[in-house]
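REQUEST FORM: STRUCTURE PREDICTION
Request ID: SP-0412
Submitted by: Lab K.M.
Chain count: 1
Length (residues): 133
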Amino acid sequence: MALVEIVTDNLYAGANLRNLEVGAIVEVDDETAARWKASGKARDTEKKKGEKLVFEVATPSALVSADSSALQAKLNEALEQLKQAHSDAEVKDKEHADALEQLKQAHSAELEAATKRADEAEAALTEATKKAK
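STATUS: Completed
RESULT:
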Protein backbone atom coordinates (compact mmCIF):
# COMPACT_ATOMS: atom_id res chain seq x y z
CA MET A 1 0.00 0.00 0.00
CA ALA A 2 1.18 3.50 -0.81
CA LEU A 3 0.24 6.95 0.50
CA VAL A 4 -0.30 9.51 -2.24
CA GLU A 5 -1.48 13.11 -2.37
CA ILE A 6 -4.07 13.99 -5.03
CA VAL A 7 -2.99 16.83 -7.35
CA THR A 8 -5.86 16.92 -9.86
CA ASP A 9 -9.53 17.72 -9.36
CA ASN A 10 -11.03 15.19 -11.76
CA LEU A 11 -10.09 11.95 -10.03
CA TYR A 12 -12.82 9.55 -8.96
CA ALA A 13 -11.93 6.53 -6.86
CA GLY A 14 -13.19 4.04 -4.32
CA ALA A 15 -16.04 1.59 -4.35
CA ASN A 16 -18.60 4.39 -4.81
CA LEU A 17 -16.44 6.39 -7.27
CA ARG A 18 -16.45 9.56 -5.19
CA ASN A 19 -14.55 12.62 -6.34
CA LEU A 20 -11.20 13.00 -4.56
CA GLU A 21 -10.34 16.60 -3.73
CA VAL A 22 -7.01 18.21 -4.53
CA GLY A 23 -4.65 17.79 -1.57
CA ALA A 24 -6.41 14.72 -0.16
CA ILE A 25 -4.07 12.04 1.21
CA VAL A 26 -5.20 8.51 0.35
CA GLU A 27 -3.79 5.04 0.76
CA VAL A 28 -4.13 2.87 -2.36
CA ASP A 29 -2.46 -0.24 -3.65
CA ASP A 30 0.98 0.15 -5.23
CA GLU A 31 -0.21 -0.50 -8.79
CA THR A 32 -2.91 2.18 -8.62
CA ALA A 33 -0.47 4.63 -7.00
CA ALA A 34 2.02 4.02 -9.80
CA ARG A 35 -0.64 4.65 -12.48
CA TRP A 36 -1.84 7.84 -10.81
CA LYS A 37 1.71 9.15 -10.41
CA ALA A 38 2.58 8.28 -14.01
CA SER A 39 -0.47 10.17 -15.29
CA GLY A 40 0.18 13.19 -13.06
CA LYS A 41 -2.93 12.74 -10.93
CA ALA A 42 -1.07 12.08 -7.66
CA ARG A 43 2.39 12.38 -6.06
CA ASP A 44 4.22 10.74 -3.17
CA THR A 45 3.71 12.28 0.23
CA GLU A 46 5.67 12.35 3.48
CA LYS A 47 2.55 12.37 5.67
CA LYS A 48 1.98 9.29 7.79
CA LYS A 49 -1.78 8.92 7.69
CA GLY A 50 -4.31 8.88 4.89
CA GLU A 51 -7.74 7.56 4.00
CA LYS A 52 -7.66 3.95 2.82
CA LEU A 53 -9.46 3.44 -0.48
CA VAL A 54 -10.83 0.00 -1.28
CA PHE A 55 -11.71 -0.92 -4.82
CA GLU A 56 -14.53 -3.44 -5.11
CA VAL A 57 -15.91 -5.27 -8.09
CA ALA A 58 -19.56 -6.18 -7.98
CA THR A 59 -20.69 -9.38 -9.62
CA PRO A 60 -23.72 -9.14 -11.87
CA SER A 61 -26.81 -10.81 -10.56
CA ALA A 62 -28.08 -13.89 -12.37
CA LEU A 63 -31.22 -13.53 -14.44
CA VAL A 64 -34.21 -15.34 -13.06
CA SER A 65 -35.73 -17.35 -15.89
CA ALA A 66 -39.24 -17.19 -14.44
CA ASP A 67 -39.14 -13.38 -14.50
CA SER A 68 -37.74 -13.30 -18.00
CA SER A 69 -40.30 -15.79 -19.31
CA ALA A 70 -43.13 -13.73 -17.80
CA LEU A 71 -41.68 -10.63 -19.37
CA GLN A 72 -41.35 -12.40 -22.71
CA ALA A 73 -45.00 -13.50 -22.49
CA LYS A 74 -46.05 -9.87 -21.90
CA LEU A 75 -43.92 -8.75 -24.83
CA ASN A 76 -45.48 -11.38 -27.10
CA GLU A 77 -48.97 -10.33 -26.01
CA ALA A 78 -48.16 -6.68 -26.68
CA LEU A 79 -46.80 -7.60 -30.11
CA GLU A 80 -50.00 -9.44 -30.98
CA GLN A 81 -52.07 -6.44 -29.86
CA LEU A 82 -49.92 -4.19 -32.00
CA LYS A 83 -50.34 -6.44 -35.03
CA GLN A 84 -54.13 -6.50 -34.51
CA ALA A 85 -54.28 -2.72 -34.18
CA HIS A 86 -52.22 -2.37 -37.36
CA SER A 87 -54.51 -4.68 -39.35
CA ASP A 88 -57.59 -2.85 -37.99
CA ALA A 89 -56.08 0.46 -39.08
CA GLU A 90 -55.45 -0.91 -42.58
CA VAL A 91 -59.08 -2.07 -42.85
CA LYS A 92 -60.34 1.37 -41.77
CA ASP A 93 -57.99 3.06 -44.24
CA LYS A 94 -59.44 0.93 -47.05
CA GLU A 95 -63.01 1.73 -45.93
CA HIS A 96 -62.21 5.45 -45.88
CA ALA A 97 -60.60 5.27 -49.32
CA ASP A 98 -63.68 3.48 -50.70
CA ALA A 99 -66.04 6.04 -49.14
CA LEU A 100 -63.95 8.87 -50.56
CA GLU A 101 -64.06 7.32 -54.02
CA GLN A 102 -67.86 6.99 -53.81
CA LEU A 103 -68.15 10.63 -52.75
CA LYS A 104 -65.95 11.69 -55.68
CA GLN A 105 -68.12 9.75 -58.13
CA ALA A 106 -71.34 11.20 -56.66
CA HIS A 107 -69.90 14.71 -56.80
CA SER A 108 -68.77 14.16 -60.36
CA ALA A 109 -72.27 13.02 -61.39
CA GLU A 110 -73.88 16.03 -59.65
CA LEU A 111 -71.39 18.38 -61.30
CA GLU A 112 -72.06 16.84 -64.70
CA ALA A 113 -75.84 17.22 -64.25
CA ALA A 114 -75.47 20.84 -63.11
CA THR A 115 -73.20 21.60 -66.07
CA LYS A 116 -75.72 20.03 -68.46
CA ARG A 117 -78.57 22.13 -67.00
CA ALA A 118 -76.45 25.28 -67.21
CA ASP A 119 -75.58 24.57 -70.86
CA GLU A 120 -79.24 23.91 -71.69
CA ALA A 121 -80.29 27.13 -69.95
CA GLU A 122 -77.62 29.09 -71.77
CA ALA A 123 -78.68 27.61 -75.10
CA ALA A 124 -82.33 28.43 -74.35
CA LEU A 125 -81.38 31.98 -73.39
CA THR A 126 -79.36 32.40 -76.60
CA GLU A 127 -82.30 31.09 -78.70
CA ALA A 128 -84.79 33.30 -76.88
CA THR A 129 -82.53 36.31 -77.47
CA LYS A 130 -82.38 35.49 -81.23
CA LYS A 131 -86.16 35.19 -81.45
CA ALA A 132 -86.61 38.47 -79.63
CA LYS A 133 -84.50 40.38 -82.19
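NOTES: The first helix runs from residue 30 to 38.
Reviewed by: T.R.
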